[in-house]
Amino acid sequence: MNVLVTGGAGFIGSHTVVELVNAGFSPVIIDDLSNSSITVLTGLKNILGFDVPFYQADCNDFSTVESIVKKHDIQGIIHFAAFKAVGESVQKPIKYYKNNIGSLLNILEVMQATSVQNLVFSSSCTVYGEPDLIPVSEETPKKKTESPYGNTKAIAEDILEDVIKSGENMNIISLRYFNPIGAHDSAEIGELPNGVPSNLIPFVTQTAIGKRPKLVVFGNDYDTVDGSNVRDFIHVVDLAKAHVAALDLLKTKNGTFYDVFNIGTGKGNSVLEVIQTFEKVNGLKLNYEIGPRRAGDVEKIYGNVEKASKILNWKTEKTLEESLKDAWAWELKLKNNNN
Length: 339
Prior knowledge:
The chain has helices at residues 11-22, 39-48, 62-71, 86-91, 93-114, 148-165, 200-209, 236-250, 271-282, 306-312, 320-336, and strands at 2-6, 26-30, 54-55, 76-79, 118-124, 171-177, 179-181, 215-218, 230-231, 233-235, 257-263, 269-270, 288-291.
């Protein structure tokens, strides 16, 4: 199957490209490089031994996306491309709604025009809002999200469900990610945020290596084990493999199919636990301090992942310790490359 990977030069997208190739799929990347780097393509070539077809383009551009789909006889799409910074979305909601919802609608229209059936959508555990009970399962009611970013994912899921209810000849799976971290064990690709990171681990590694003077933990007065936020941290390679499993399931369907899956480890770790584990496995001391809570942050969330295990035949294989070792190896590689 030829698979279009939107946002394929990004953190999760690039690792998924590797796992697609490992599983026998032929990926094609489209990415506007607004939050990624062209250097990722070199890392992919070093891992895979060949150049993956790449187009620098906007997923909101119908004619360009349609032409790529036709040129490569695309049979499946994995749609990652979206703005994803929770804090920025609170400050710039219009930017997030326009891009994240608009690009999904465009992808769906291209699928209609080209008769592409299979779509894996990059969703998020943010659709659960501040849950009443954890772990959350796929049956946990979606609540008002804590940020415009989260709301774009909730709205996108509603759109996809409505498309299938209409009888559209498509097979769609939404994967609700928890918190991807780590890097490929080759240290050829990893998380490469432009500017100030919006995720915890790049802030940790950049502080450890001296790019940033200190790490701020946003709040220590939450109702958690140590007062800091609790999240489900999943190795990005495990997350990438879930997309392969989703495509394998879609290939067995005959249209008008929709389902959602939690993709996580099934357990939570606090921000302070992650910092302490990072220090332990890498033999480092981090300069961090406690700051005020950050707008849009959920107190604690982690997922029940039994459905993905049972139906997708998928489960995580890598530990938090491995994730944090790989993230640090990637940061060291960036330093050696003067990035």
